[in-house]
């Protein structure tokens, strides 16, 4: 019987160590001319258009606590048993993350309620501050995702977005758009293949 070959970890480690000792010079990043990047007269409407294009939905409310009323109009939220919320003053959760160290414990979450820091008009993305998340996997493992964000917190493009987070010192942060989708199999679009099946954005007027 043929025995499986064991990876030569010593050789692999030696190669990686040699690569780490090499200094590779790279050209500096180009300076961005602000007058040449795209901006919008109505960035909120552009955000709504782009979000719809990628399969997300948005609803406006006058105050964050009204977000729960919006979600309760969605049948899969009304039927949800396991809801994790990092914005409990807007939407209370039914499952606490206290004392849970193993991310696998969240495998059966129905909804995740997240707090968005700001929106990006050109691609319909929202920046999530990882400091608000007890576990980063919560954004991606839940069946459905709702993000609550302020209407005034919006930028036109990713250049402005990166300027905004240039000095971000959190342990983790991510731009989220969605829902998750893939068309790898037979070029047939499937939603929710690698993450949430639905993204509901709730925009608080201010």
Quick rundown:
The protein is an alpha/beta fold and 206 residues long.
Overview of the structural elements:
With 206 residues, the chain is of the alpha/beta class. It has a single domain, classed as 3-Layer(aba) Sandwich (Rossmann fold). Helices cover 21% and strands 22% of the residues. It contains six helices and eleven strands. Strands 1-11-6-3-2 form a five-stranded parallel β-sheet. A four-stranded mixed β-sheet has the order 7-4-5-8. Strands 9-10 form a two-stranded antiparallel ribbon. The protein is globular. The N and C termini lie far apart (71 Å). The model has no long low-confidence stretch (mean pLDDT 90).
The CATH H-level superfamily is NagB/RpiA/CoA transferase-like
In the CATH hierarchy, the architecture is: 3-Layer(aba) Sandwich
| CATH class designation | Alpha Beta
List segments where confidence is low: pLDDT < 50 over at least 5 consecutive residues. none
List the total number of helices: 6
Number of strands: 11
CATH fold assignment: Rossmann fold
Structural class, from secondary structure content? alpha/beta
Residue-averaged pLDDT, rounded?
A: 90
What is the terminal separation in angstroms? 71 Å
Largest sheet: 5 strands, parallel
Computed over alpha carbons, the radius of gyration is: 21 Å
List keywords for this structure.
206 residues; globular; single chain; 5-stranded parallel sheet; 11 strands; Rossmann fold; 4-stranded mixed sheet; 22% strand
